[in-house]
Design goal:
By secondary structure, this protein is an alpha/beta fold. About 50% of the residues lie in helices and about 15% in strands. Helix 7 links the parallel strand 6 and strand 7.
Length: about 400
Amino acid sequence: MAEKKRMTTEQVVSHLIEGEGADLLRESLRWMVAELMEAEVSELVGAAHGERNPDERLTQRNGYRPRRWDTRAGEIELQIPKLRRGSYFPSFLEPRKRSEQALLNVVQQAYVCGVSTRRVDQLVESLGLRISKSEVSRISAGLDEQVEAFRTRPLDGRYPYLWLDAKVEKVRDGGRVRRKALVIAHAVHESGRREILALDVGEAETEAFWREFLRGLVERGLVGVELAVSDAHPGLKAAIAQVLGCPWQRCTVHFLRDCLGHCRRDQHGMLAALIRPIFNQPDLGSARDRLSEAVAALDGRLEKVARMLEEAESDILAFYAFPAEHRTKLRSTNPLERLNREVGRRTDVVGIFPDDAALIRLTTMLAIEQNDEWLVGRRYLSAGSIALVLEDQGDPPPDEPKEVPQLQAA
């Protein structure tokens, strides 16, 4: 058997980021070199920025001067510190030094494999910088701080529509490769724009995990959810009812797939022709009529599917309670699944992540990119149509909504 072609870490991160994550990569590189310059200048001055140390201070800072730096990640506008006495020029810009590629590799590896204190220490040593171990540790942790800042940012305003979904990824844990759930929360803001609110990695899609995930959203400021859309995972459904207490829409795409799984392949066309029209009716009454007709047509032929339709009626038709303009976007998790496929296109290159942090780091980078695109792009829902939903809410709910208590068995 021919040996599979393997990629080095550098090849993997370059494939993942250089062509499609240049903006975030450039900003991270800008941040890192700014920290390196600050550490280098602190050594020349004899004191850190803002530190009062008259006995050991050799000179003082005197503002900054701009300088353009062309890198493989694009053009970066550097702010080089100036000194009152003497001069300073960054070591990584000195002629004949191949430091730009090394700096870029460190930032790339941070997103896929994690950046270690040892790796940064080797980098600054090769650049000829004199930086303390504590400074090296701070720079190493700084890249992850950018990711954490996105994941823990406050949520302002109301989010009437919320989509929740999970994607399985392979992660090394305890010496073994485990299949873990990468969960993503995606919502529509009261402005009509989409936004990725949160993502996390869990051992499995348990109710306890989903409950903690949703509580984290509420603690960050999630309010005003009028409809939550997801697959029919029992733990997730229970967590939505307890923490958010809002109506739930079962993904109609997943529901149809479940139904098709209970019939022969040659029956798929007939079954799809009966079920799909249920979700394209002008109002709830018409949808219920079509569902009843489908159940009658399936009685005696596909009894199990007929019962599935009857039992799921309220869950698969919940989206009809909302404006007609919104319905095609509310009846499934397709908006989130498109993002999942984009994430999968990148994570498939990695295959197996070294730990949870590496998976979170890369997917958060993609989430930041996606949010930026949505922020400057066209609104997902028009301001006029989403106003209809916000008017129904009245005054916004309190900052700390109470959870629906769980019923305890006697």
